[in-house]
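Async update (no meeting this week)

Hi team, since we skipped the sync, here's where things stand on the single-chain job. The sequence we agreed to prioritize is pasted below, unchanged from the tracker. I ran it this morning and attached the output directly underneath so nobody has to dig for it. Comments welcome in thread, and please keep replies under the output.
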Amino acid sequence: MDTNAAVKVKHLTVSYHNKPVLWDVNVDIPAGVMAGIVGPNGAGKSTLIKSLLGLVPPLSGSVSFHGQTYKAQRKRIGYVPQRSSVDWDFPTTVLDVVMMGLYGRLGWIKRPGRKERHEALEALDMVGMHDFAGRQISQLSGGQQQRVFLARALVQQADIYFLDEPMAGVDATTERAIIDILCRLRDAGKTLIVVHHDLQTVQSYFDWLLMLNVQVIGAGPVNEIFTGENLKRAYGGQIALLNEGNVLNTNKAPDFTALERAE
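Output:
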């Protein structure tokens, strides 16, 4: 166990309707990394993030952030949920959505002022959405909405960011912009924990990896965890991985030339 871990999870078990979704998860995520969470559908990736943030109650286990509880560290933690979980028809502007990220620092009584408005506009500028500040969020494309939620997290000035599939359903330009922002945050000493679905970009995006399928398959530096053997253990018959010789090498990370989903 890493005593300097940004996030420390011990014996975490979560169940829905008496069926385990996460089982005895033990993992230490070090500070200052871009950490990916990968696994097949139903592996518990989003549930893990929600449980760490207190949004889903665990059956057992504990979690700490830099050695303290979530309640004690809440202001240091940012969260970008899945875009599909948000009601984008709610009548509010882009700037208002971003300024919601400031309430953790201000509290719900104090109203944001000129300084906070400036911070929100700066965050929108970082994600390329400054010119959309007055637009209704329902009028945005999927990629634009994702950028707005990223800006909302940025104004929190957190130390640890959780992002649940931030690249899902966005175009290549938006994905590249999101990754560039996350890399800049990591280089500034922040910890990024990202649920991710595209195995072909894992090695280029992340430097640390948690591979999950209800239980932990592996956790550590991406070049140690992203191997054919671990992928077979995580995905089983759901995925066929072919390298250049059409043979899966289980001793190193696979070279993806084809991804075939089983029926």
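Quick observations from my side:
The mean pLDDT is 85.
Residues 16 and 249 are 36 Å apart (CA to CA).
Reply here if anything looks off.
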